[in-house]
């Protein structure tokens, strides 16, 4: 056997081993309860309270309810008092846990000192940074965004500044106690450069890199910090798409994502979204960035909006305030 033949045998063995390891790692996603088991007291062991931003509906509401069902008292935060009060009543009646409401608008500049004052006496063991906003309902090119200067400020304040400020408020207590859990909601579309969602996707890349860096810094302190990057979840942000294998209800997505808490510093939160992320990353960008595909995406979103049932004038006015989708 000559040297060249030995080299190719060795190379083949390395390739087989590489893909065997990748297959093993992927199999962990298929069986999260086996690979990433959580005790019944896992969540309550982190502390007495969970704080969830953007909790008036959708994914945030689902996280608040799920954590309350697991024995946590919850603080729910958003800008709409009426919705928050309704959610607080629902969670309280369903779980018997205490629910505290904080009304705030995260697109504003100076809201965090007041939030810190309201949280300072609470033993916060879990923080879910869920609040986020899209620049507009219909995906569009960067320069086509309405009121672009204001939109930039709002998106950065809501999607980026809120994340780091809430960690600044909550993390010191976790560091002192040597335990805690922070879940930061990113987005599957941040997996690749995503035209028409450029500003939003870029803000979610920040969420992931910040989370991963913070986890590296505080992992040895007993704190778990994870970015969760979902694709389709049926919420107002996605115009309440019909649920299916890929588009999950908020409740089902959160139930799934909580099984992956120990799966690493970034997860897609479900099997179907993990597979979708893998597919997306293997589509050549030249194809994905083609004008025909982008125009089709815009047309699809517009058609979905038109197909929704018509709403009353008062409801339409309320929805208009949410055109820059903010939960």
Index terms:
alpha/beta; Rossmann fold; seven-stranded parallel β-sheet; two-stranded parallel ribbon; 9 strands; 12% strand; globular
CATH architecture: 3-Layer(aba) Sandwich
Q: How many individual domains? A: 1
Structural Rg: 21 Å
Q: Give the tally of β-strands.
A: 9
Structural class: alpha/beta
Q: Runs with pLDDT <50, length 5+?
A: 310-326
Main-sheet strand order equals 3-2-1-4-5-6-9
CATH-level-4 superfamily name: NAD(P)-binding Rossmann-like Domain
Shape designation: globular
- Strand % is 5-15%
CATH class: Alpha Beta
Distance between the termini: 66 Å
What is the arithmetic mean of pLDDT? 90
Helix content: 40-55%
What does this structure look like?
With 327 residues, the protein is of the alpha/beta class. The protein has a single domain (36-321), classed as Rossmann fold (3-Layer(aba) Sandwich). It has 13 helices and nine strands. The strands form two sheets. The protein has a seven-stranded parallel beta sheet with strand order 3-2-1-4-5-6-9, with helices on both faces. Helix 5 links the parallel strand 2 and strand 3 (99-103). The relative contact order is 0.12.
């Amino acid at each position: 056997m000559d040297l060249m033949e030995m080299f190719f045998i060795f190379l083949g063995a390395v390739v087989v081993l590489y893909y065997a390891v990748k297959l093993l790692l992927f199999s962990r996603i298929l069986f999260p309860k086996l690979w990433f088991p959580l005790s019944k007291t896992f969540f309550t062991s982190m502390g007495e309270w969970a704080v969830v931003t953007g909790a008036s509906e959708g994914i945030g509401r689902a996280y608040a309810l799920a954590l309350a069902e697991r024995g946590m008292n919850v603080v729910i935060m958003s800008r709409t008092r009426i919705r928050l009060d309704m959610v607080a009543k629902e969670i309280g009646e369903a779980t018997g846990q205490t629910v505290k409401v904080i009304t705030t608008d995260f697109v504003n500049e100076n809201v965090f000192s007041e939030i810190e004052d309201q949280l300072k006496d609470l033993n916060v063991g879990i923080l879910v940074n869920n609040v986020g906003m899209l620049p507009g309902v219909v995906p569009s090119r960067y320069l086509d965004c309405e009121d672009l200067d204001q939109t930039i400020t709002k998106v950065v304040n809501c999607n980026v500044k809120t994340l780091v400020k809430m960690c600044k408020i909550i993390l010191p207590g976790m560091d002192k106690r040597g335990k805690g859990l922070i879940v930061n909601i990113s987005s599957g579309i941040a997996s690749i450069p995503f035209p028409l969602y450029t500003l939003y996707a870029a803000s979610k890349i920040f969420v992931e890199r910040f989370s991963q860096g913070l986890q590296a810094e505080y992992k040895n302190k007993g704190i778990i910090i994870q970015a969760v990057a979902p694709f389709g979840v049926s919420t107002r942000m996605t115009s309440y798409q019909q649920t299916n294998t890929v588009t999950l209800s908020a409740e089902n997505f959160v139930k799934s994502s909580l099984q992956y808490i120990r799966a690493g510093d970034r997860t897609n939160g479900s099997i179907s979204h993990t597979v979708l992320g893998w597919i997306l990353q293997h589509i050549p960008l030249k194809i994905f960035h083609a004008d025909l595909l982008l125009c089709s995406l815009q047309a699809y979103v517009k058609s979905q909006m038109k197909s929704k049932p018509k709403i009353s004038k008062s409801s339409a006015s309320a929805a208009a305030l949410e055109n820059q989708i903010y939960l």
